[in-house]
Amino acid sequence: MNQKTSNWYVVLPIDTPFIHLAHVAKLIEESDGQYQAIIPIVNGVNQPLIALYHHSVKNLIMMQLQRKQRSMKALLEKLHVKYVHFPEADSFHFININDHKEWKKIQQASRGVINDRL
User: Fold this and answer.
1) How far apart are CA 67 and CA 74, in angstroms?
2) Where is 82: in which H helix or E strand?
3) Is residue 58 within a helix (H) or strand (E), and if so which, with residue range?
4) Is 35 left (phi over 0), alpha (psi -120 to 50) or beta?
5) Which of 83, 18, 24 lies closest to 48 in space, CA to CA?
6) What is the pTM of this model?
7) By percentage, how much of the chain surpasses pLDDT 90?
């Protein structure tokens, strides 16, 4: 947010490799001037690190970080948030992979389904 000026910022963590542009596009479609954050909900769980944030939240984020308050839940409680539900069928795309062991586990569990879903 300090490097590039924009009205909205897309947040995507590096450990969710299966997110599609279509998921981001759906969030963008939901953005308007009424909300400060657009957060997906998948299988009843909100995903604040795969989201859109309005530029108006920058100072609040900076204040929280300076105070070493890293809770996304605490941030969202201070914002006007729109939650966007994604179908259960999309849950695979929101999987996060934190290490090689998890990647292997997902490969084995999917047995070729990964390419079909991508």
Assistant:
1) 12
2) strand 81-86
3) helix 58-66
4) beta
5) 83
6) 0.84
7) 64
**Helices (H) then strands (E): counts for the chain:** 5, 5
Nearest of 104, 90, 102, 50 to residue 72 by alpha carbon: 50
C-alpha distances out from residue 94 to 41, 49, 54, 63, Å: 10, 10, 22, 28
Classify the C-alpha dihedral 85-88-91-93 as positive or negative: negative
Q: For the chain, percent helix, then strand, then coil, each to nearest 5?
A: 45, 20, 40
Beta-bridge partner residues of 53 = 9, 37
Q: Give the confidence band of 32 by pLDDT, cuts at 50, 70, 90.
A: confident
> What is the token pair recorded at 59?
């100072």
Contacts of 57 (CB under 8 A, 6+ apart): 36, 37, 75, 79
Is-contact 40 23, C-beta < 8 A? yes
- Could you tell me if 45 and 58 are in contact, meaning their C-beta atoms sit under 8 angstroms apart? no
